[in-house]
Automatic annotation (TrEMBL), chain A:
This is Spermidine/putrescine ABC transporter permease. It is found in: Cell membrane. It comes from the Bacteria. GO terms for cellular component: plasma membrane. Residues 65-271 form the ABC transmembrane type-1 domain. It comes from Mesorhizobium sanjuanii. One of its GO terms (biological process) is transmembrane transport. The keyword Protein biosynthesis does not apply.
Automatic annotation (TrEMBL), chain B:
It holds the Pfam family BPD_transp_1. This is Spermidine/putrescine ABC transporter permease. SUPFAM superfamilies: MetI-like. CDD domains: TM_PBP2. The lineage of its organism: Bacteria, Pseudomonadati, Pseudomonadota, Alphaproteobacteria, Hyphomicrobiales. Keywords: Cell inner membrane, Cell membrane, Membrane, Transmembrane, Transmembrane helix, Transport. GO terms for biological process: transmembrane transport.
Length: 285, 265
């Protein structure tokens, strides 16, 4: 189908003209703001490394960085351990039923993160149904503080991240040739062994891609830690907002953004190297 | 393997899966009953049913004004991404451009950069131009953010297109613009519609960039909801959440149906 006539139907000249308006928009309102952020982090009336020097000695920055990594890693790993069995469940359904179950995964994916955060504050709150259920089971003795602390932030992030993990793993499970597992079964392997030696190793590209996607999304998260976390759970994005609006220190905000940009840039580059990474991006979006 | 272990293994996957579906769905569903409560305190199940929160939503200009603002910006974003994205997607598919891979990567860029970084960058850009708290800056920012979704959607339908039809039309003497409008466009309808709904939803739900570039006069519904949750804890949030959810789910179902239609071709 992709014959030579396919790609030479338009001349390079007219193609350039068709791409140009979009290119202009992205140069002006995507590339330029990024360049401006980098510039702002070095320029305060003259070239300076003040913002970076201040970052390097800021205990607040290190604390936030550590919090961000701990929360992101926890949320990513928990979503892997929940998401993997779910992907397995989806991969074993008939296409018809899979479409239905995927709807259950995708519909919340499309609802606003604000709505989900709000709902979680109600569900996990001190008189929310989770605590009510715990109280009912324990006869009124157990009540956990589950929101406006790290636990709440992590639950909220897992809720947001799970669909990305599920889709990523599902992709690599569906790509497997079912005959491999059948062959292993014929040769006498039990379900556990088939899983450990055939299914799991073959799904590793999806697992790794899912981990990188979830971690990258996590370290940039803003809304969930702000609404469900406590004061101690400020993450990088919240710190950027803090320097932009509270202290009006734009060079500091920019320098932190550059750090975040470098970390997520490195992660996206690794993702591109992982086999199937590009395909996953398409599915996830 | 012992019998209890085998039974546990058989049940483990479906139990985790169903618990997960519940965990994913519950937060989106629970706002419906809460929104029909009386609003003294967020509670589930509500003690008495009332439409009071909706009445407050639609009589308070700060709330429904924010909703109208969101709808307007989202509509403009959907139109702009279509007008800009469609020709670009077609050109990238039907011409041998040097650096096409690079251009494609650049167009997908807004998906890969943390939104908070773009929010700050646009804030730094619009502040000295005196464009903060203006519709135009929000509209341009959202168009930038939504473009990749239009490109993915239209790109997918373009790949299903048989180029021999275009060549046949060319041989029969049709001009290239005529071919685009009479041969290509009708076949892309589902992809374009899905892309436009995508773009609409991205803009309608977007909080972070809007939070950075809007002000009191240009506040969108998500920004209003965010500040209501952070500072006021107004019970109207429940009604706003329900309206947003109904809207998002309708759009999402529309997108999924259009995508399925596309796959079945």
């Amino acid at each position: 189908m992709s014959s030579a006539s396919d790609v030479s139907f338009l001349s390079p000249r007219s193609a350039t003209l068709l791409v140009a308006p979009l290119g202009a928009l992205l140069i002006l309102f995507f590339a330029y703001p990024l360049v401006l952020t980098v510039w702002q982090s070095f320029y305060e009336g003259g070239f300076t490394l003040r913002a970076y020097a201040e970052l390097a000695t800021s205990t607040l920055f290190y604390k936030v960085l550590r919090t961000t990594f701990v929360i992101s890693l926890t949320a990513t790993l928990v979503s892997l351990f929940i998401g993997y069995p779910v992907a397995l469940h989806l991969s074993r359904q008939s296409p018809r039923r899979r479409t239905f179950y995927l709807m259950l995964v995708m519909l919340p994916f499309w609802t606003s993160i604000l709505v989900k955060s709000f709902a979680l504050t109600v569900l996990l709150g001190h008189s929310g149904i989770v605590n009510q259920a715990l109280g009912f089971i324990s006869g009124g003795t157990i009540q956990f503080p589950m929101v406006f602390n790290r636990f709440g932030a992590i639950v909220g992030m897992i809720n947001y991240l799970l669909p990305f993990m599920i889709l990523s793993v599902l992709g690599s499970l569906l790509a497997q040739d079912g005959n491999l597992a059948r062959a292993a079964e014929v040769m006498g392997a039990g379900p556990f062994r088939i899983f450990r030696q055939v299914t799991l190793p073959l799904s590793m590209p999806g697992v790794i891609a899912g981990i990188i996607i979830n971690f990258t999304l996590s370290i940039g998260m803003y809304i969930t830690p702000a609404l469900l976390g406590g004061r101690q759970d400020m993450m990088i994005a919240n710190l950027i907002d803090f320097y932009t609006r509270q202290t009006l220190d734009w060079p500091m905000a920019s320098a932190i953004s550059v750090v975040l940009l470098l970390i997520s840039g490195a992660l996206v580059t690794i993702l591109g190297r992982v086999r199937g990474g590009a395909g996953v991006m398409g599915v996830a979006s | 393997m012992t019998r209890p272990l085998r039974i546990a293994a058989v049940f483990f996957v479906p139990v985790v899966a169903w618990a997960c579906y519940l965990f994913l769905l519950l937060p989106s569903v629970i706002v419906f009953p809460i929104s029909f409560g009386t609003g003294g305190e967020f509670e589930f199940p509500p003690r008495a049913l009332s439409l009071g929160l909706y009445q407050q939503f639609f009589t308070d200009a700060a709330w429904w004004g924010a909703m109208m603002q969101s709808l307007m910006i989202a509509l403009m974003t959907a139109l702009a991404t279509t007008v800009l994205g469609l020709p670009a997607a077609y050109a990238l598919q039907r011409a041998r451009l040097s650096g096409a891979g690079l251009i494609n990567g650049f167009i997908m860029g807004p998906l890969l950069v943390p939104v908070i970084v773009l929010g700050l960058g646009l804030y730094l850009q619009f502040a000295p131009w005196n464009l903060l708290n203006r519709d135009i800056s929000l509209f341009l920012s959202h168009t930038m953010l939504a473009v990749p979704f239009m490109m993915i959607s239209v790109g997918a339908s373009l790949r299903h297109l048989d180029p021999t039809l275009e060549n046949a039309a060319l041989i029969m003497g049709a001009s290239k613009p005529a071919i685009f409008f009479k041969v290509v466009l009708p076949q892309l309808k589902a992809g374009i519609a899905a892309g436009a709904l995508f773009a609409f939803l991205i803009s309608f739900d977007e909080v972070i960039v809007a939070y950075f570039v809007t002000g009191p006069e240009t506040q969108t519904l998500p920004v209003k909801m965010y500040s209501a949750m952070r500072w006021e804890l107004s019970p109207v949030i429940a009604a706003a959440s329900t309206l947003v959810t109904v809207f998002s789910i309708l759009l999402a179902i529309g997108i999924m149906m259009l995508q399925r239609k596309e796959e079945q071709r």
